[in-house]
């Protein structure tokens, strides 16, 4: 017999009754039933119930076992009584009567329990991640992640893509976040960078003539953490294609993502109609460029109903250039109690509140508008608003006004909250949408023009478009949104050096700087570059949605905490003096 096991803890069935077996695993829990001890023995594959009575030579050892001790047991497989069968376990028809136990790895008192689903502070869970990973929910999430990645690889190969690996140590490149820099020992004073994405390399692969590339790529960005974003590193499905337009990229990636969600979505409905929504329209209707289309609410501009009206706050606001009033419809939300809850939410977001109108049945049987705004506007204008929004008796509308870029984000969150409160969001589905026509440039807080998205994108209209107002230039850039999250970002690339130089010049990069920072790619484009484009899908975020988790750290095996610290391994750590001397570096004292 094997030194540690003849079967795993998920193998044994009724057909094994009477066999002598050997199992190894972790003590999940010990139960004492009046002279009979039961151990739930767990390994990667499952759980088996082991028992010993006072006649068993294993009884004394079993009586001293602590939870999470690693043991080997020898014993005989017995059928359980019919009334004691556990249908929830694949091994639930049997139990093993232990005749011998060997402790392979004793366990100290646990800093957090593995048995059960008790909530524990995240700092404790991350410091003892190796214990946390033994818990069923997290173990299953990590296995799901592995299965998703395998499925992605198979699907990409099946669609004619070839997997290549790109360098991890490279040059710094502007990707919208801070680089992690790596000092060079051989070139003192110079630094490599960990790639924020394989952007330049995958474009060079196209120039080299490989046509369809993909990679499960590690990416490194020094970012502020969020619940749906790691502060240090993440993995993405990275792909690039030659001789393609925007719609070709969509046609290539949709079957892969759709198939993943159908395979691993747990029976939730997967939407097959992926609309194309222009960026400006998405902000107007949903207040975000990653809308959750499970929520049917669409905001509308209602400025004309307030312009010169008796509602002085909005009427005066609309006298200023660039302002407007938007309405958030709230079907079935027509009560003062609900309006008060939404206003409380708005105040949590830093607003004094939101104006509202709700419609109710009047004494004469007609539908009338109520609320402070309704009184100020009068019945004619409130009826026009109701007609525009398609609302009825028992419904409401909430209003925000000002410059759209200053209230859109709050409006988007309010739309989500209203949809959630009213039960309008269908949680049992995945809804996708391509967000297209992103602006190439934006104005920074300092008033400068900078790239708003990927700097290597082709502007719509080419060189001619770059001769006009930069803030009106649209790029062939696109994102895929799903249930309120951005899953994919991509673009058709700028493969013409003269257009690239002009695009970077508008953002404040002279030609010399472009040559210095992107010399390899610029040089390659001078020797025959095909039109090409691609995208990248965030694997961590995909798995988070499939696992129905709200925090991305629940689907990453060894994540950092929110301060970008690895509490288990002690990173970041201070280098030794010898390491610093070797790199010719000196650390400044903390401020």
UniProtKB/TrEMBL annotation:
* Keyword line: Aminoacyl-tRNA synthetase, ATP-binding, Cytoplasm, Ligase, Nucleotide-binding, Protein biosynthesis
**Subcellular location, record wording:** Cytoplasm
A Pfam cross-reference name: tRNA_anti-codon
Spell out the residues of the site Important for tRNA non-discrimination. 33
Query: What segment(s) does the record annotate as region Aspartate?
Result: 199-202
Protein EC? 6.1.1.23
Q: Does the keyword ATP-binding apply?
A: yes
- State the function annotated in the UniProt record: Aspartyl-tRNA synthetase with relaxed tRNA specificity since it is able to aspartylate not only its cognate tRNA(Asp) but also tRNA(Asn). Reaction proceeds in two steps: L-aspartate is first activated by ATP to form Asp-AMP and then transferred to the acceptor end of tRNA(Asp/Asn).
Can you name this protein?
Aspartate--tRNA(Asp/Asn) ligase
Organism name: Paracoccus rhizosphaerae
């Amino acid at each position: 017999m094997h030194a540690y096991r003849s079967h795993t803890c998920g193998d044994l069935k009724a057909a094994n009754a009477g066999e002598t077996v050997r199992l190894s695993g972790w003590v999940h829990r010990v139960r004492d039933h009046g002279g009979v001890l039961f151990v739930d023995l767990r390994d990667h594959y499952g759980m088996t119930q082991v028992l010993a009575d006072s006649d068993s030579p294993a009884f004394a050892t079993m009586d001293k076992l602590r939870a999470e001790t690693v043991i080997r047991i020898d014993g005989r497989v017995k059928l359980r009584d019919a009334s004691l069968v556990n249908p929830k376990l694949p091994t639930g028809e049997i139990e093993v009567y232990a005749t011998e136990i060997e402790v392979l790895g004793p366990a100290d008192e646990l800093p957090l329990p593995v048995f059960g689903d008790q909530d524990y502070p995240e700092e404790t869970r991350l410091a003892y991640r190796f214990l946390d990973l033994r818990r069923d929910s997290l173990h299953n999430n990590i296995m799901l992640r592995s299965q998703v990645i395998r499925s992605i690889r198979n699907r990409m190969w099946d669609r004619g893509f070839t997997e290549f690996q790109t360098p991890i140590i490279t040059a710094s490149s502007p990707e919208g976040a801070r680089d992690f820099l790596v000092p060079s020992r051989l070139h003192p004073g110079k630094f490599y960078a960990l790639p924020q994405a394989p952007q330049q390399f995958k474009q060079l692969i196209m120039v080299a003539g490989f046509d369809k590339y993909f990679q499960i790529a590690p990416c490194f960005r020094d970012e502020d953490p969020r619940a749906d974003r790691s502060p240090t590193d993440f993995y993405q499905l990275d792909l690039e294609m030659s001789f393609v337009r925007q719609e070709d990229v969509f046609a290539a990636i949709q079957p892969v993502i759709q198939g993943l969600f159908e395979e691993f979505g747990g029976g939730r409905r997967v939407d097959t109609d992926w609309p194309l929504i222009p960026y400006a329209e998405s902000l107007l209707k949903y207040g975000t460029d990653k809308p959750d289309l499970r929520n049917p609410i669409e905001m509308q501009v209602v400025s004309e109903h307030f312009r010169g009206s008796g509602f002085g706050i909005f009427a005066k606001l609309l006298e200023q250039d660039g302002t407007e009033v938007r309405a958030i419809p709230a079907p079935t939300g027509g009560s003062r109690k609900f309006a008060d809850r939404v206003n409380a939410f708005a105040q949590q977001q830093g607003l004094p509140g939101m104006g509202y109108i709700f419609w109710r049945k009047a004494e004469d049987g007609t539908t009338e508008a109520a609320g402070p705004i309704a009184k100020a506007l009068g019945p004619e204008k409130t009826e026009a608003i109701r007609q525009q929004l398609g609302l009825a008796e028992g419904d409401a509308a909430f209003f925000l006004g000002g410059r759209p870029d200053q209230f859109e984000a709050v409006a988007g969150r309010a739309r989500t909250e209203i949809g959630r409160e009213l039960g309008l969001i269908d949680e049992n589905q995945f809804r996708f949408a391509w967000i297209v026509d992103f602006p190439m440039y934006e104005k920074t807080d300092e008033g400068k023009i900078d790239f708003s998205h990927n700097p290597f994108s082709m502007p719509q209209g080419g060189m001619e478009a770059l001769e006009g107002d930069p803030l009106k230039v649209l790029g062939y850039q696109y994102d895929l949104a799903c249930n309120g999250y951005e899953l994919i970002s991509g673009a058709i690339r700028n493969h013409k050096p003269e257009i690239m130089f002009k695009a970077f010049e508008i953002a404040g990069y002279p030609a010399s700087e472009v040559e210095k920072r992107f010399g390899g790619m610029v040089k390659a484009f001078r020797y025959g570059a095909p039109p090409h484009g691609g995208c990248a899908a965030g694997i961590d975020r995909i798995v988070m949605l499939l696992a129905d988790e709200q925090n991305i750290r629940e689907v990453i095996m060894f994540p950092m905490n929110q301060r970008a610290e690895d509490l288990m391994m002690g990173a970041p750590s201070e280098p030794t003096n010898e390491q610093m001397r070797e790199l010719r570096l000196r650390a400044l004292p903390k401020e």
